[in-house]
């Protein structure tokens, strides 16, 4: 059984490619596995994947979308029966076609805590701008004294330059109550917030008992903070448009660690300009990487990072281990995390 791993570039300062490869080498312990770990310079385009996948029976590390998971692309890899994406999310593809081919496609829910923590960090940045205040203290020359020996810049020490926002008692709305949304909801509850959520399917079980599950309009109308955790699909694309923003409270905070396409960026910019949205913390954008300038880059009301919420050493290695575990379950006849 030929198994191919497409190992993406390691983009963290505290993790080496060799450490990641060592985790993938655990696949060699599975009887019958002939493992090849391949190292493209950047993530390959669909046509470039053909040489990497070749005649493999199993491949790890493909991004799932209809540009790859389609009849034409798969026809060049007739041996392929198992595909594992290393991410939580995927784009829509022809599920029935993959079933007819007898394929199993899995995702890897490795980073719920990591991504939720990063989303919370974005919220803390919006509420407190700690680095701004740290720079104020560190970059002030405290050695300059007046005639009484008192620091000339003394007023800067007990002073805030951005509004400080307390979350206790406010309402946090979660859009998409999957694993990441649930982790974020627990953090909000820990800060003393009322937590409400909207998901396409109501969640059942004791772990959701602290969350009020509401309709979408209620989420918009009652939330002081809205954190987005839904997948990007035809149904969720452009969910947060001018109509949605109009229904929100004045001064709402938006956090998005899901996918940029869930927000109409022009409408978000207009809502920021009007004050309807107080601020936005975004780890994702519609175009990644950006293909040009973006008005969201030129306002102090946004904090924007480059889709890095998942990039901790712990989560990167956890993704490999979980993907291998999912594959072992598949070999044992009990596949897990199946998305087709």
Structural account:
The protein is an alpha/beta fold and 340 residues long. Helices cover 31% and strands 14% of the residues. The chain is built from eleven helices and twelve strands. Helix 3 links the parallel strand 3 and strand 4 (82-84). It starts with a strand and ends in a 9-residue tail after the last helix.
The helix count comes to 11
Query: What does the radius of gyration come to?
Result: 23 Å
Mean pLDDT: 95
Low-pLDDT stretches are none
Apparent shape: globular
Distance between the termini: 22 Å
Please provide the ordered H/E string of secondary-structure elements.
EHEHEHEHEHHEHEEHEHEHEEH
Percentage of β-strand residues: 5-15%
Q: How helix-rich are the residues, as a percent range? A: 25-40%
- Structural class, judged by helices and strands? alpha/beta
Order of the strands making up the biggest sheet: 8-7-6-9-10-11-12
Largest sheet features:
7 strands, parallel
> In total, how many beta strands?
12
Give the structure's gist in a few sentences.
The protein has 340 residues and is of the alpha/beta class. 31% of the residues lie in helices and 14% in strands.
List keywords for this structure.
340 residues, alpha/beta, 7-stranded parallel sheet, 5-stranded parallel sheet
């Amino acid at each position: 059984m030929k198994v191919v791993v497409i190992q993406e570039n390691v983009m963290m300062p505290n993790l080496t490619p060799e450490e990641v490869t060592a985790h993938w080498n655990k696949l060699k312990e599975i009887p019958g596995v002939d493992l090849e770990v391949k190292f493209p310079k950047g993530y390959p385009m669909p046509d470039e994947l053909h040489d990497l996948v070749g005649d493999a029976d199993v491949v790890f590390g493909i991004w799932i979308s209809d540009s790859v998971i389609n009849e034409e692309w798969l026809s060049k890899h007739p041996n392929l029966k198992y595909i594992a994406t290393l991410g939580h999310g995927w784009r829509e593809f022809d599920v029935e076609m993959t079933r007819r081919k007898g394929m199993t496609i899995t995702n890897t829910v490795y980073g719920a805590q990591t991504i939720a923590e990063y989303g919370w960090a974005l919220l803390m940045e919006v509420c407190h701008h700690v680095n701004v205040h740290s720079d104020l203290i560190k970059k002030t020359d405290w050695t300059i004294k007046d005639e009484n020996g008192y620091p000339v810049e003394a007023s800067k020490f007990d002073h805030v330059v951005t509004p400080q926002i307390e979350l206790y008692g406010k309402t946090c709305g979660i859009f998409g109550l999957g694993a990441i949304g649930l982790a974020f909801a627990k953090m909000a509850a820990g800060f003393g917030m009322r937590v409400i959520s909207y998901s396409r399917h109501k969640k059942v079980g004791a772990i959701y008992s602290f969350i009020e599950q509401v309709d979408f309009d209620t989420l918009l109308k009652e939330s002081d903070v809205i954190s987005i955790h839904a997948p990007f699909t035809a149904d969720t694309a452009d969910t947060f448009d001018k109509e949605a923003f109009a229904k929100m409270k004045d001064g709402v905070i938006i956090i998005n660690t899901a996918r940029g396409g869930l927000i109409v960026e022009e409408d978000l910019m207009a809502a920021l300009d009007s004050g309807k949205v107080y601020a936005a913390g975004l780890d994702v954008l519609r175009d990644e990487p950006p293909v040009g300038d973006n008005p969201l880059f030129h306002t102090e009301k946004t904090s924007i990072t480059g889709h890095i919420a998942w990039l901790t050493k712990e989560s990167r290695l956890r993704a490999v281990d979980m993907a291998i575990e999912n594959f072992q379950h598949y070999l044992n006849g009990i596949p897990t995390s199946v998305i087709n």
